[in-house]
Design brief:
54 residues; 0% strand; flat; mainly alpha
């Protein structure tokens, strides 16, 4: 029995949809028990540098 490439494309789209849908649903409903909060600052190592497109 020969299976068409369209079948595999649809199967691939279904798998991708289920994975992202499942992960998205989990991320939207998961409860965060705790978080880490720490103070911080951003510091540059040197002076301003000019960037030129190639």
């Amino acid at each position: 029995m020969k299976t068409s490439p369209r079948f595999y494309a649809r199967l691939g789209y279904l798998v991708i949809f289920l994975i992202f849908g499942g992960l998205g649903s989990w991320a939207a409903t998961a409860v965060i028990d705790s978080a880490v909060v720490a103070p911080g600052t951003v510091a540059l190592e040197g002076d301003r540098k000019v960037v030129q497109h190639l």
